[in-house]
Specification:
- It is globular and about 65 Å long.
- Helix 9 crosses helix 16, helix 11 crosses helix 12 and helix 12 packs across helix 15.
- Strand 20 and strand 21 form a beta hairpin.
- It has a six-stranded mixed beta sheet. The chain has a five-stranded mixed beta sheet with strand order 3-2-1-5-17, with helices on both faces. Strands 4-9 form a two-stranded antiparallel sheet.
- The longest helix has 19 residues.
- With 469 residues, the chain is an alpha+beta fold.
């Protein structure tokens, strides 16, 4: 009888769940649902991803996320769920969720839980931590800088501006950590180094929080999760979940980025380019590599903990498919003001067709409207404007090239060649639906570009449990 590993990714905009058949190591079933969980402010306007340049919060409704998770799992084949042998979770990194120990969820609704006594999820896109505020924080004992949207930075901000908020909660973690804790009935939060590193103030060499530094700054140490190795188990399901038996092993929650890379990096000489909401370009460092002792905030390349004590060299851009989406939203708003109506999806398709007819453009678009973590104050620019390059085809083509120019400026092709990278594995929702972006990817790299091995965090976390347990 076949058994399955359930892999779940709780992403920024959607939840995905897959069942990996353990015999063939292939996906036997898959479901994806949008969370539609972004918090709307009192004016009816969605809190903007442009939070990196404002004091606005970027939060999501925890109840909606968990509701989407339950619906997503419930759509998988029931006969297969009964034979799930282990469960792996990944999700959006950096963000922070607060809850109360022992009462963070309600299991009274048959075989699924609902959120209770939790905060809203403060996501990685949150912008309440200004550059001045970040510079006022103590220096971490870590090779990774602390940026807006990082869990520890957000907690520091709440300490200063809303200390009474923190008094209501006893536990904190990422959204995927919360799901693991509720599935296993844990009193606290267990976090892997992948997620801990994304919070800041965590030393990946010793795999320990900067306890002395945080304590000296008055940080609420009770909120820090316990650490557990990436790729290991942290507990068992405390109740049946959508037909999955109670007592099913559950892995510690992993970073969506690391899991997406794991799903498609088939050789150590691969570099993975993923362009979805944001954009990342990464390759694996040699086994003997150790990161620097202190942060290099001006560096565009970071080193993320991976598996088996390895590190990934990562150029993580905040500007990817979200820039293209913002462009479409802008044009849609302009058309509405002019009395014309066209859906975002229809407009997007028309823009791509226009750009496919415009093979090159001398227009230059720097698309960094969200800034970058190594340069948070940079803004977007459009240059070399003339009367001959103002068409939608020119602008769309230049915008797609600008997304690639930005990521390759962060990690130049020469750096990839020096690391022995022999091919680029390109994936992500933005690349999959945009032929113009594909063309610009192939122009940007001297190495061959391969498709068809889509980075998939849900598949990746299931593969991790299959390979490492």
């Amino acid at each position: 009888m076949s058994t399955y590993i359930l892999g779940v990714d709780v992403g920024t905009t959607s939840v995905k769940a897959v069942l990996l058949e353990t015999g063939s190591r292939s996906v036997a079933a898959s479901q994806t649902l949008p969370t539609t969980s972004d918090i709307i402010d009192n004016s009816g306007i969605k809190v903007s991803a442009l939070a990196c340049h404002t004091t606005y919060a970027k939060e999501q409704d925890t109840g909606r996320i968990i509701g989407t998770l339950n619906r997503c799992i419930g759509l998988l084949p029931g006969d297969k769920l009964q034979h799930v042998s282990s469960i792996g979770l990944s999700g959006q990194m950096h963000g922070v969720l607060f809850w109360k120990a022992k009462s963070g969820c309600d299991w009274s609704n048959r075989d699924f839980f609902t959120a209770r006594d939790t905060s809203q999820l403060i996501t990685w896109q949150d912008g309440r931590c200004s550059s001045n505020f970040l510079s006022s924080l103590p220096k971490p004992d870590s090779h990774l800088s602390v940026a807006a949207g990082f869990g520890c930075a957000t907690i520091f901000w709440l300490m200063k501006h809303r200390p009474e908020f923190l008094e209501d909660f006893t536990v904190a973690g990422t959204i995927q950590d919360y799901v693991v804790s509720m599935l296993c009935g844990l009193d606290g939060c267990v976090m892997t180094p992948q997620n801990a590193a994304s919070w800041g103030f965590f030393n990946t060499s010793s795999n320990q929080w900067n306890i002395d530094i945080l304590k000296g700054a008055g940080f609420p140490l009770r909120l820090l999760p316990q650490c557990s190795p990436s790729g290991g188990l942290v507990g068992q399901t405390c109740a049946a979940w959508h037909g999955i038996p109670a007592g099913t092993p559950v892995g510690g929650a992993l970073g969506d980025f690391q899991c997406s890379v794991y799903s498609c990096m088939s050789a150590r000489t691969d570099a993975v380019l993923n362009i979805s909401t944001s954009a990342q370009l990464t390759f694996s460092m040699p086994a003997d590599f150790r990161p620097p002792d202190s942060p290099e905030p001006a560096s565009s390349i970071s080193y993320f903990p991976y598996f088996d004590n390895l590190y990934l060299a990562v150029a993580a851009s905040l500007n990817g498919g979200n820039v293209l989406a913002t462009f479409v939203e802008m044009l849609t708003a302009w058309m509405k003001e002019l009395g014309a109506e066209l859906s975002d999806s229809c407009l997007y398709e028309k823009l791509i067709r226009c750009a496919l007819n415009q093979e090159t453009s001398d227009l230059r678009v720097s698309p960094t409207i969200l800034g970058e973590r190594h340069n948070p104050l940079c803004l977007g620019q459009v240059t070399n404007i003339s009367t001959t390059n103002l068409s939608l085809g020119h602008l769309t083509r230049a915008l797609c090239r600008g997304v690639l120019d930005n990521i390759t400026s962060m990690m130049p092709a020469e750096r990839l060649q020096q690391a022995g990278v022999s091919r680029i594995v390109a994936s992500g929702s933005a690349i999959a639906r945009n032929e113009v972006l594909k063309q610009e990817v192939e122009k940007a790299f001297p190495q061959p570009v391969v498709y068809g091995q889509n980075a998939d965090s849900a598949v990746g976390v299931a593969m991790v449990l299959y390979d490492l347990l």
